[in-house]
């Protein structure tokens, strides 16, 4: 029995997402949304303007179960990749988190850990973690 989880192709997910959105909102609204997303993707290569060697402030945030997680504890183990997402309601965030899940073995092979942070409350991050079968830490920063 093969227990390997099949992970959908990103382009297939994107096409499915666009089809789903097209069924929910007017074409004019969808066109604006898609054009804005495409424009931002071309214009902004680093929205946070983070450079190699920059350091993040240390933080402690609740995980999906409400337990406090310290960035320092993860840094003590090695490099940390941090990504931010808007919430479980965001279809593009879902795609990005799924993409991170696909490359998680590569991140781990480099000795790093992955942390995703959302402004949602812990119960919503738990929903995201379970719904997306995420195998990395999802934290809540509901005070931004």
Tell me what the structure shows:
The protein has 144 residues and is an alpha/beta fold. It folds into two domains: 42 residues; 90 residues, Glutaredoxin, CATH 3.40.30. The chain has five helices and five strands; from the N terminus they run ααββαβαβαβ. It has a three-stranded parallel beta sheet. Strands 1-2 form a two-stranded antiparallel ribbon. Strand 3, helix 4 and strand 4 form a beta-alpha-beta unit.
Summarize the structure.
The chain is α/β, with parallel strands linked by helices. It contains five helices and five strands; from the N terminus they run ααββαβαβαβ.
Short descriptors:
single chain, 144 residues, alpha/beta, Glutaredoxin, three-stranded parallel sheet, two-stranded antiparallel ribbon, 5 strands, 15% strand, globular
| Residues in helix, % | 40-55%
Give me the secondary-structure category: alpha/beta
| Biggest sheet overview | 3 strands, parallel
Tally of alpha and pi helices: 5
Average pLDDT, all residues: 79
N to C succession of SSEs:
HHEEHEHEHE
Taking all Cα atoms into account, the compactness measure Rg is: 17 Å
Give the overall shape: globular
- CATH first level of the largest domain: Alpha Beta
Classify the beta-strand content into a percent band: 5-15%
| CATH topology-level fold name of the largest domain | Glutaredoxin
DSSP summary, beta strand count: 5
Q: At CATH's second level, what is the architecture of the largest domain? A: 3-Layer(aba) Sandwich
Corresponding CATH superfamily of the largest domain: Glutaredoxin
Count of structural domains: 2
Uncertain runs are 1-8
Could you tell me how far the N terminus lies from the C terminus, measured between alpha carbons in angstroms? 44 Å
Side by side, the strands of the main sheet go: 3-4-5
């Amino acid at each position: 029995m093969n227990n390997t989880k099949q992970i959908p192709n990103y382009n297939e997910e994107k096409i499915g997402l666009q089809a789903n959105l097209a069924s929910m909102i007017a074409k004019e609204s969808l066109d604006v949304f898609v054009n804005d997303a495409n424009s931002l993707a071309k214009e902004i290569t680093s929205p946070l303007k983070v450079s190699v060697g920059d350091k993040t402030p240390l933080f402690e945030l609740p995980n999906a179960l409400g337990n406090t997680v310290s960035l320092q504890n993860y840094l003590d183990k090695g490099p940390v990749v941090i990504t931010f997402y808007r919430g479980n309601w965001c279809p593009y965030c879902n795609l990005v988190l799924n993409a991170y899940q696909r490359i998680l073995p590569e991140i781990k092979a480099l000795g790093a850990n992955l942390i995703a942070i959302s402004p949602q409350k812990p119960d919503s991050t738990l929903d995201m973690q379970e719904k997306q079968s995420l195998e990395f830490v999802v934290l809540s920063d509901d005070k931004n």
